[in-house]
């Protein structure tokens, strides 16, 4: 059940209630494998996959389909429908059943379950659950973002604007270093790097603990969708490097040029102006 302090309304409440519950259930399945001796195999693109990715994928897919038989579910762990078919979807679920598989394999706890609802080409609802901490971040377009703790208490999320008195805190991938990002950081005034796995980098912006999350190389749409809604609904922005909002259900489901997530549009504009 959604936390009682959460005053989320329709049209998104009917989607959020099951999505929130299903993300937490999937987190429970992931933890059963995490506490066990998990075996890793590798996909064609050499990224790791475990029994936990598969268990989470099957549960989320089946449970969303049971609640919403008419809404397609697209997942990192399943073959995507042809673009000719999915381009006509007015609404679909986009899931990353275990984001941060490398963090899972390395046992550093920084992995998440991500469920997003896409309408047209926009991400409009997102749930990011963190199995180890039991925290669940969630938000819906125009209504705000919340953080629920394992014990059911919850609070609204709001980004914190950086001040000139302190260093900018930059969320960076813990497991996928990028030389272009290092070069970009060299142009900022003594930034403080905050290494984090998975979509947690977006969530920390929404919590006010990180100011920026710049990404130069492509990420898949499912790595971003749910957490983008949470960042935006906490007052942040997630733009491409031309200051345009990210779009979804593209022919290739990637954000090709990367993106800039920031704790506010003013900060993002300042950073983009400096990077040109
Ligand atoms: N260069 C790249 N191209 C495509 N996906 C990438 C990538 N670098 C990282 N990713 C994916 O982005 C997700 C989060 O990575 P990071 O912790 O670096 O932010 C991971 O997803 P999965 O764990 O779901 O496969 C990872 O596979
Ligand atoms: Mg992922």
Automatic annotation (TrEMBL):
Substrate binds at residues 76, 98-101, 223. It catalyses: adenosine 3',5'-bisphosphate + H2O = AMP + phosphate. This is 3'(2'),5'-bisphosphate nucleotidase CysQ. Keywords: Cell membrane, Hydrolase, Magnesium, Membrane, Metal-binding. GO terms for biological process: 3'-phosphoadenosine 5'-phosphosulfate metabolic process; sulfate assimilation. Pfam families: Inositol_P. The keyword Metal-binding applies. SUPFAM superfamilies: Carbohydrate phosphatase. It comes from Sulfidibacter corallicola. GO terms for cellular component: plasma membrane. It is an enzyme of class 3 (hydrolase). Its cofactor is Mg(2+). Mg(2+) 1 binds at residues 76, 96, 98-99, 223. One of its GO terms (molecular function) is magnesium ion binding. Its EC number is 3.1.3.7.
